Amino acid sequence: MKEPTLGNPQNTIAVLQKYNFSFQKKFGQNFLIDTHVLDKIIRSAEITKDDMVLEIGPGIGTMTQYLACAAGKVVAVEIDKALIPILEDTLDGYENVRIINDDVLKLDIAKLAEEENGGRSIKVVANLPYYITTPIIMGLFENHVPLKSITVMVQKEVADRMQVGPGTKDYGALSLAVQYYAKPYIVANVPPNCFMPRPKVGSAVIRLERYENPPVEVTDEKLMFRIIRASFNQRRKTLANGLKNSAELDFSKEEIEQAIGALGKGASVRGEALALEEFAALSNLLADK
Questions:
Q1: Domain 221-287 has CATH 1.10.8.100
Q2: 228: region left, alpha or beta (phi > 0 left; psi from -120 to 50 alpha)
Q3: pLDDT-based confidence at residue 36 (cuts at 50, 70, 90)
Q4: Start-end of CATH 1.10.8.100 domains in the chain
Q5: Which residues pair with 11 in a beta bridge?
Q6: What's the per-residue H, E or C state across 155-201?
Q7: CB contact at 8 A, 155 and 133
Q8: Is the pLDDT confidence value at 131 over 90?
Q9: Can you give the pTM of this predicted structure?
Q10: 60-93 pLDDT, tens per residue?
């Protein structure tokens, strides 16, 4: 296996110039050019030769080279056709890498894990485009892809949102959804100068370790998430009003107020004050209606 050659600015610039590559704003492309950060991502993802890794958005193959050296197999999904010939070049000699030119949101990843890894759990590692971070992460969880962990570079603000608890301004539907499926922790904060081109905001690497079983018991998972979304859709409203005004829910005013009362909460409580356990209890109370 070859040693990684990308990860420093000079080599990245050389590859981009060789192919006359121009960055596509619509794909949110920011390539990592810091070997310390790359090492930290690989270490925190705890990749071994027994692992199959799914990489989303490999770019020119910088992190892919590092992943190929650490993992048994790497499947890299890249949406930008212009990057495919570059990847074929930079990953030449890495025998355990498969490149797929597709939109990861349209790909059946559970089926891919079945084909490539016999249905065993995979690890996801990615430097995610900021504009589709949430749909990608939620898609992996909600579609019940067999996952051990997700280790991703995201906008710092989004990483913060994933790990905060009730009563903070960043707490919301994303915090609850992530914490229902996985244990989140921030591995490293990454400044803009570690990328080319430089993003306008700071980034963070966050690792989400998938729970074997969620930490709360819910009769109807989909109902709980509808309740959570309704609770945060209009943050300034009380929880009762948020639920009553939601087109996704069909409970009477009395049923909603009764359920909130049974939680031991007052009529003026807002959604942002409830922990995951309380949303699960509320959902179970309303499911009985």
A1: yes
A2: alpha
A3: very high
A4: 221-287
A5: none
A6: EHHHHHHHHCCCCCCCCCHHHHHHHHHEEEEEEEEECHHHEECCCCC
A7: yes
A8: no
A9: 0.91
A10: 999 999 999 999 999 999 999 999 999 999 999 9
